[in-house]
Design goal:
The protein is mostly helical and about 60 residues long. It is built from 5 helices and 2 strands.
C-alpha cells in the first residue's frame, strides 16, 4: 500500500526523474519518464495533477490514508 502524500511529494521533488512512477509500481513508465526528463516537463505536470486528483493510483491496489 502506498501513501498519496508521499506520491505527491516525490512527484513535486523528483517527478522529472520518474521517481513517482517507480514508487507507484510503474517501473517501465518510470524508466521512460527518466529518459525523457519527465516528458520534457509536460508528462511531469500531468502526472502531478493526476496524483493529486486521485486518477493515477498505484499499480497494485489503492492508496493508504
Amino acid at each position: 500500500m502506498k501513501s498519496k502524500t508521499t506520491a505527491i511529494i516525490l512527484s513535486v521533488l523528483l517527478g522529472t526523474l520518474g521517481v513517482d512512477r517507480f514508487y507507484l509500481g510503474y517501473v517501465g513508465l518510470g524508466i521512460l519518464k527518466l529518459l525523457t526528463v519527465g516528458g520534457f516537463g509536460i508528462w511531469w505536470l500531468i502526472d502531478l495533477i493526476m496524483i493529486c486528483t486521485g486518477s493515477l493510483k498505484p499499480a497494485a491496489g489503492d492508496y493508504v490514508n
